[in-house]
Amino acid sequence: MKKIEKAKKYVIENLTYYKTTEPLREWVRNPKTSPDRGMERVLDRSREEAFQNLERIVKSQQEMIKVRDERIAELEELFHKKLIYRIYNYLKFIKKRIFLI
After folding, report:
1. d(CA 79, CA 48)
2. pLDDT digits (tens, 9 = 90+) for 43-81
3. CA-CA distance, 101 to 59, in Å (whole number)?
4. Cα–Cα distance between 36 and 40 in angstroms, integer?
5. With contact defined as beta carbons under 8 Å apart, do 50 and 43 qualify?
6. If you ran DSSP here, which 8-state letter would residue 21 be given?
């Protein structure tokens, strides 16, 4: 029970609306720009690296799609070899012949 009381006390003291919004309210009272405004952005310098990462991700996704498609083809082949599927196709063929004549 003591842990519950400690947790409750911590929440009441530290996780209230007033306490959690204190930095925001301070900024509203005295607005200023961020410290890094006007500095060169690191992300702009590493654009090529980002494109390389994107290409790597695209290649891995394409490989995953290729593996998935191969697996689907294998499963379809297994299914189409089964006797029940052959009977179904044969009955479908006969039905078409009967209604066409």
Report:
1. 47
2. 556 778 888 899 999 999 999 999 999 999 998 888 888
3. 53
4. 8
5. yes
6. T
List the structure tokens of 58: 């695209």
Residues in CB range of 31: below 8 A, 6 or more apart: none
Q: Is 85:79 a contact under the CB 8 Å cutoff? A: yes
The two structure tokens encoding residue 62: 């394409």
Which class for 12: exposed (0-12), middle (13-18), buried (19 or more C-beta within 10 A)?
exposed
pTM for the whole structure:
0.40
How is 23-83 classified by DSSP, letter by letter?
HHHHHHHS----TTTTSPPHHHHTHHHHHHHHHHHHHHHHHHHHHHHHHHHHHHHHHHHSH
Question: What is the percent of the chain with per-residue pLDDT over 70, rounded to a whole number?
Answer: 92
Structure tokens at 3: 């842990």
